[in-house]
Amino acid sequence: MAHDSTDQAKASDRRKAPSGSEPIAAEPDLPPQELAAGDIDPATVNAEEEDEARLPEIAEENAEPVAEGPLAIGHAAIENAVRLAPISPGVYRMLNAANDVLYVGKAKNVRKRLASYARLTAPQPARIQRMIAATVAVEIVSTATETEALLLEANLIKQLRPRFNVQLRDDKSFPYILITGDHWAPQILKHRGAQTRPGQYFGPFASAGAVNRTITALQRAFLVRSCTDSFFESRTRPCLLYQIRRCSGPCTGEIDFPGYTELVREAKDFLSGRSHAVKQQLAGEMERASAALEFETAALYRDRLAALSAIQSQQGINPRTVEEADVFAIYQEGGYSCVEVFFFRTGQNWGNRAYFPRAEKSFTPEEVLASFLAQFYDDKPPPRLVLLSHTIEEAELLANALSVKAGFKVEVATPRRGEKKELIAHALTNAREALGRKLADTATQGRLLAGLVTTLGLPHPPQRIEVYDNSHIQGTNAVGAMIVAGPDGFIKNQYRKFNIKAEGLTPGDDYAMMREVLQRRFKRLVTPPAEDSAVRSRRDDDSFPQWPDLVIIDGGRGQLNAAREIFDTMGLTQVSLLAVAKGPDRDAGRETLFMPNRDALKLEPRDPVLYFIQRLRDEAHRFVIGSHRKLRKKDIREAGLQEIPGIGPSRKRALLHHFGTLKEIERASIADLGKVPGVSAESARKIFEFFHSQLG
């Protein structure tokens, strides 16, 4: 779906004139990437990491027999609420003795719905009986219409995560493609979050990877710039993207304003569904250029057509008769549910994603899908058509609610024939295969976690493993990182980085860095801030524990002792500690494992448990190195060559005159650096080592 965030401002063909011919350090070959925020501990994660959907914990259907006493108390609490309940639409919340929300429900007639729970003789599923037995109070919110009740129910379920509701998990905002409207030369970029920047938004796409691939192909096809406005304004000559034909170079006047505006129009037309017309126009231009013997121009149009074909080939199945729709298919197996979602916009497939909502075994596919849909569209714009694999009871109510939310008519349908039925079948196949893969992966992960119990003597298979590592270069740009793993593998939306900021820290003191990271991480768990019931219920969710069962440190006995010192100070006795020391010559398979009050342990190189620990350690190393490099690149961009000892303004100017850009200086060999006037062999070595030092 494409839409403008604001009215498009009138374009102006003004362009900032180059400030001079001398190259400057802030002018690399490629546009700079977006920088991460400074210290994102512990609320933000690496935005480029794709979250992996996880299987939920399955609540046992007959976990405990319900005693008559508590069941009677629950019935009495609900009967008391029935006497005060309105006969109008509304939302009700069932609370337990700790004031936690057990269940959120909606009803056209709240009194009538609650009365159905209060009947002692009415047969109820075990799930409902357990819910009634735990209920001590009921809260009610009246709404003007049943549609408002549906929207409020979905919002409360996502906020409160009630124990007995179907819960949408692994939810996040979807990425869009934005063609900006606040600059005379519009920029194309990936966008998440609130759509407040002026411009035209196209999406949603199922993943950041799908957006990145599409933007790359669109750059080749339409040569629209992707650099930031500040980078654009500072250019004195085209960057590398112009040289490799992924940008038309509007920054330095390589293309005039009307020509660039035409390229932007073509890109918008293609993303808006008029791809056939755009391809016909490009094919016509190619034929005309070829007939005029302008073969280089014809080759450019040929490459642009190939890029457009590549976009459509990557999108897989593209419907012929469905212009705009979301397709939902649900598949259940082994007590788990998988909902596969496909996005079709402008007649093109913009990707798919699998969800694994949390729901008890007694929920039917129709019940899970109905609750999933209301929560899914709580913070997302709906399309004009929603196709479902199963007929839900309140399809008309959902359609009305989505129509109110979107501002146009939304149809919710379960197709029985034709191409729409084929789309459902395709989505259902993907849902079945996704659940099968996830169940297989989870079983393998379960065996590895059980192996940790035997090998390390843990009290039970860990549900949450946290792995810590540090990175720096001679103490500079020091950063610590934490990665998280559980029964379903790596939990990337729980990764955290910690910018080391303790004053008086000795550069390169790994022990002190680890102590700071652990103190900052566990201080929040030992002394949590005041929180409402919604936050508390999320923290106490048994499927998503915040306390780790096992902490792994990259290092030897010294790192273990530093971590143990912090744990002893904070009184953390329930968390197991493990340090992993690299083998001689850093050989994988020869690691030594250290645990408190135990002898050092070495496993056989082919031991699956050792391989699992190596994977955890390597993932932490990958994440912390990436975080460190971002900080280092930012410092280099800000300080430039002046950060290198012995390199003053004169040598900096000579280097830039010789190589042109900071990127080329970084790529240069020691011999090439030594050829620059005024740069001695010793200075060349210092410059080379500055850019190629091993990360600590």
Topology:
Elements: E1 2-4, H1 68-84, E2 90-95, E3 101-107, H2 110-118, H3 126-134, E4 137-142, H4 146-160, E5 176-180, E6 188-191, E7 199-202, H5 208-222, H6 229-234, H7 240-243, H8 257-271, H9 275-291, H10 295-314, E8 325-333, E9 336-345, E10 348-355, H11 365-376, E11 385-388, H12 395-406, E12 411-413, H13 418-456, E13 465-473, E14 476-486, E15 489-490, E16 496-499, H14 510-526, H15 533-539, E17 550-554, H16 557-570, E18 576-581, E19 592-594, H17 608-639, H18 649-659, H19 662-667, H20 670-674, H21 681-692
Parallel strand pairs: 8-11, 11-12, 13-17, 17-18
Antiparallel strand pairs: 1-7, 2-3, 2-4, 5-6, 5-7, 8-9, 9-10, 13-14, 14-15, 14-16, 18-19
Feature tags:
696 residues, alpha+beta, seven-stranded mixed β-sheet, five-stranded mixed β-sheet
Which regions contain 5 or more consecutive residues with pLDDT less than 50? 7-28, 33-50, 59-69, 533-544
Task: Indicate the percent of residues in helices.
Answer: 40-55%
Give the structural class.
Answer: alpha+beta
Number of strands: 19
